[in-house]
Write a structure and sequence with these properties.
Strand order of the largest sheet: 1-2-9-6-3
Organism: Nannocystis pusilla
Helix content: 40-55%
Main location: endoplasmic reticulum
Number of helices: 17
Radius of gyration: 23 Å
Shape: globular
CATH topology: Cytochrome p450
Pathway: Lipid metabolism; bile acid biosynthesis
GO molecular function: heme binding; iron ion binding; oxidoreductase activity, acting on paired donors, with incorporation or reduction of molecular oxygen; steroid hydroxylase activity
Distance between the termini: 89 Å
Keywords: Endoplasmic reticulum, Heme, Iron, Lipid metabolism, Membrane, Metal-binding, Oxidoreductase
Length: about 475
């Protein structure tokens, strides 16, 4: 009895110590970077500049170290050669619980538990967002982007912010591609932006009711996606039927509304940066215009320069974290032959932005080079570090089981946006340099600019 009581007290004390200061380091575990603040740990520093914090820790502690973030231990693996080892350790490192936690906090839904229903939902994404199913969605996206460009431009010059213009075009085209005509207007965009603005704090666990107008904005978005329009995509129709069979009507609404955020939150800033980078690079702009005008969009594989350009923009502006939950006490093997001990309940994180800005992998990493991802022969380029090929040199969409299932459509959408904007519109920047990245959203995907980029836009006369 006394032994059991002592064990319970020790476990309770250990859990409290972990939540407050990161706990004691056990044999074989990564070094713990002790925080200045109890419980919050390094959360504020991560919010200010995640990559700067990780680089400083990497210099002092090596490629694997532990931070305390809001009462949780996060083990960061910074060696790009070990990324596949983390992504493949699915028996011990899982994602479903993390995805469920974020979805419930940010969007109010509950996804199916691990089992046949979840497997069916995941298969559905692969069946409807890639391969043969991708072609009609991409064709519809090209059509709706053309309509949106006509809607938001005129024959005369208009001065405006390029980020605002990109957001209006991408939001209208993306929503109408998925949900049908009539769903996207200025009010819908404002409701989405209000939801997106508070997403980092929602995902961190702050209740939605704490933010002015957020619950009403969410309800308006729910009402928009609840009505099935006659020209809604097969993707949305099939998903709605699947959810109607496997969950409650209210949860179905929340799950459908979450697709609004998933399809827009990263695509909006990615489209802006992809166009802005090319507008600041006359040789790149000329090369992309010539390629698109010669080949069109019938086959995206015939647009390697445009594809490379989009990849380069994503390298520079994406700052996502790939996170896994340690399911049970285990050891993680690293690429150099070492192993690190992990304990159940901790998290393991990859921050690809460290790799994306590594000068050993990408020469002159702060510079935009539209053809960086092309080899001399025109095919995909391989990247290396220390003479060894880097297995996954670009990770803007996450990796492994948590890789974005809509990445093919998103990439096609950004390629279409940049290609069509450069060939259908005249765009002149009114500022000499691009705005900085907004580091406060680091870890969540593609970063927005800290300020607008003023420009003037008009429709190019059509032959």
């Amino acid at each position: 009895m006394l032994a059991s009581l002592r064990t319970a007290i020790v476990r309770t004390t250990d859990r409290a110590a972990i939540r407050m200061i990161g706990g004691a380091r056990r044999a074989g575990e990564p070094p713990i970077v002790r925080p200045r603040l109890p419980f919050l740990g390094h959360a504020l520093e991560m919010g200010r500049d995640l990559t700067a914090l990780l680089r400083a820790c990497q210099r002092e502690h090596g490629d694997v170290f532990t931070l305390l973030v809001a009462g949780r231990r996060m083990h960061f693996v910074c060696d790009p050669f070990s990324y596949p080892h983390v992504l493949k350790a699915q028996d011990n490192l899982t994602f479903h619980e993390i995805g469920q936690e974020i979805g419930t906090r940010a969007f109010g839904y509950f996804s199916p538990p691990a089992g046949p229903e979840l497997d069916e939902l995941e298969r559905y994404y692969h069946d409807h967002l890639k391969n043969a199913a991708l072609a009609p969605l991409t064709a519809r996206m090209e059509e709706r982007l053309g309509v949106a460009f006509d809607r938001f431009t005129g024959d005369d010059w208009r001065e405006e912010g390029l980020f605002d213009f990109s957001a209006r075009v991408i939001f209208a085209a993306g929503m109408e591609t998925l949900y049908g005509e009539g769903i996207a207007d200025d009010a819908a965009l404002r409701d989405f932006q209000r939801t997106d603005r508070w997403f980092p704090l929602l995902a961190a666990g702050v209740p939605a009711g704490a933010f002015p107008g957020l619950l009403r904005a969410r309800e308006r978005l729910l009402a928009r996606v609840d009505r099935m329009r006659p020209d809604a995509s097969a993707f949305i129709r099939a998903r709605d039927l699947l959810l109607a069979r496997t969950t409650t009507p209210r949860n179905r609404q929340h799950l459908q509304a979450a697709i609004v955020w998933a399809s827009q939150a990263n695509t909006l800033p990615a489209a802006f940066w992809s166009l802005a980078h090319l507008l600041c690079d006359p040789p790149g702009r000329a090369a992309i215009v010539a390629e698109v005008e010669e080949r069109g969009f019938a086959d995206f594989k015939r647009l390697p320069k445009l594809f490379s350009s989009i990849s380069e923009s994503l390298r520079l502006c994406s700052e996502s974290l790939t996170i896994r939950l340690v399911h049970r006490d285990c050891e993680l093997a690293l690429a150099d032959g070492r192993t690190v001990a992990l304990r159940a309940g901790d998290r393991v994180a990859l921050c690809p932005q460290l790799m994306h800005r590594d000068p050993e992998i990408f020469a002159d990493p702060e510079r935009f080079r539209f053809d960086r991802f092309l080899s001399e022969g025109g095919g995909p380029r391989q990247f290396s570090k220390g003479g060894q090929r880097v297995p996954i040199p670009l990770m803007p969409y996450g990796g492994g089981v948590s890789m974005c299932p809509g990445r093919f459509l998103a990439n096609n959408e950004v390629m279409l946006f940049a290609g069509l904007a450069l060939t259908r519109l005249d765009i002149e920047l009114l500022e000499p340099s691009l705005p900085p990245l907004d580091k406060t959203r680091a870890g969540l995907g593609v970063l927005s600019p800290t300020r607008e980029l003023r420009c003037r836009i008009r429709r190019r006369p059509r032959a």
